[in-house]
Structures are given as structure tokens and as C-alpha cells.
Amino acid sequence: MTKTAKLYGGSLYDLAAEESLTEPVMEEMDSIRQIFRENPDYLVLLSEPSIPKTERVALLNKAFDGQIQPYLLNFLGILCENGALREFGGCCDEFRSRYNADHNIAEAVVSSAVALSESQAEALKKRLEDMSKKTIVLTQKVDEGLLGGLRVELEGKQLDGTAQARLLSLRKKITEIIV
Fold first, then answer.
1. Torsion-angle region of residue 152: left (phi > 0), alpha (psi -120 to 50) or beta?
2. Angle at 74 between CA 20 and CA 10, to 5 degrees
3. What is the pLDDT of residues 114-150, one digit of tens each?
4. How far is CA 124 from CA 4, 50, 97, 150, 163, in A?
5. pLDDT average, residue stretch 77-95
6. pTM score of the predicted model
7. Virtual CA dihedral for 172, 175, 177, 179, nearest 10 degrees?
């Protein structure tokens, strides 16, 4: 994440928290981020230096006025005016990071060879909550390259219980014994 995204995203979070609007702003940011992902040409248009800033901001206003929180619309306008609209994704990440920290939430990504059942996912989530003492938001990824087991990324740490990790550990122990 860039310094710009951290600064802008953190500033928007502070304003939204002051106004008790963190949840709606975060939901709307996620929606706008998805719109930008699905329509990359729109983001290119809004970042085109040959188009006057006022026209680009007017395009944003036309698209989102009355649809999103005024603070968020103004925020998008500021990013557009400052040529930083491409930093919006990083701003979203910083906003969510600050929200999660304030609400004792941790995001975990679990990778497995096959999708976990609902009961398995709930059991894992409960176990991670017990370990971290935080509310866990669990995202599942299927990685067919894994032979079995789970790999969990939680707060910058990786918990690797995959078959590959166990085999590598076993190989290392055997090598140490032999040498």
C-alpha cells in the first residue's frame, strides 16, 4: 500500500468514524471498487489528464450523486482532482484495516485442496477466534495444487498444515539425522 493510499484512506476513515458512518461508507467503497474492477475503462477515463479535472469530477458526480454518502463522493472527487484515483483500492484496504482494528476483527484466508463444508469452516473460524481473541472474517480459497490439509493466513502469519509442509518438515528432519 502506498503512502498516498494510507493517508487518504485513513483520513476518510477518521471522518466516517467521527460521523458514525464507517459501515455504510465501507460497504459503498466495496461497491465502487467492484464497479472500477468491472469497468477499467471508466477508471482510465477518470484518470485521463487530457480531460479537464472539472469534467472528470462532474462525471463522478453524475454517476454517484445521491447513490453514495456525500463524504465518499467528495473523497472520490478529491482523488480525481489530485490524480490519485488509481489509489482507490489501497484507500479501501486502509479504511478496512482501520475499521477491523477498531472493531477487533481479523481477516483470515484459508486455502485447501477442496472447499470446506459449512461445518468445517465454522469449526475453523471458531478455533481461529479462540486463538486470536478476535472476530474472524473467513475467506476460503480452493488450491487444487495442495495435496491435503489447510493453509491459513491470519494477520500476516501463515499457519501451514498442508501435506506439502508436513512432508518438507519430515524431509528436513531426516536430512538433519543423516548429516
1. beta
2. 55
3. 899 999 999 999 999 999 999 999 999 998 888 788 8
4. 36, 51, 22, 10, 18
5. 94
6. 0.78
7. -140
In this prediction, residue 178 carries a pLDDT of 78
Query: Average pLDDT, stretch 20-31?
Result: 96
- Please state, in angstroms and rounded to a whole number, the distance separating the CA atoms of residues 13 and 53: 25
CA 171 to chain centre: 36
Residue 77's CB is within 10 A of a number of other CB atoms, namely 18
Tell me the three cell numbers of residue 107: 481477516
Question: Which residues are CB-contacts of 114 (< 8 A; sequence separation ≥ 6)?
Answer: 142
Question: Is residue 179 pLDDT above 70, yes or no?
Answer: no
Question: Which residues fall within 8 angstroms of residue 96, CB to CB, at 6 or more apart?
Answer: 26
CB atoms closer than 10 angstroms to residue 29: 25
Amino acid at 132: S
Confirm if 75 and 63 have CB atoms less than 8 A apart.
no
